[in-house]
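Working notes for the structural subgroup meeting. M.R. asked for a predicted model of this chain before we commit to crystallization trials. I am recording the input and output together here so anyone reviewing the notebook later can reproduce the run.

Input as submitted:
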Amino acid sequence: MGAVTSILLASDWELGSLIHGMVLDSPFSCFKTMVEDIVRHQVKIPSCLINGVLSLLNGTIKKKTGVNLKKI
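Returned structure, recorded in token form:
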């Protein structure tokens, strides 16, 4: 998640202008993949259940903060 946080920081108009380069490494291509991987290693839950919970969380988080988890 460090790479994603760095990208979000760099995308900020004011702070991004101060950044001239970044070297990033992340084993996950998206937030959903990361959550699925972590949950599957902890408990045995079907993917459809994980996706349902993520959709509910995304709706709540987007409504309260404006952040869309699908874009992370």
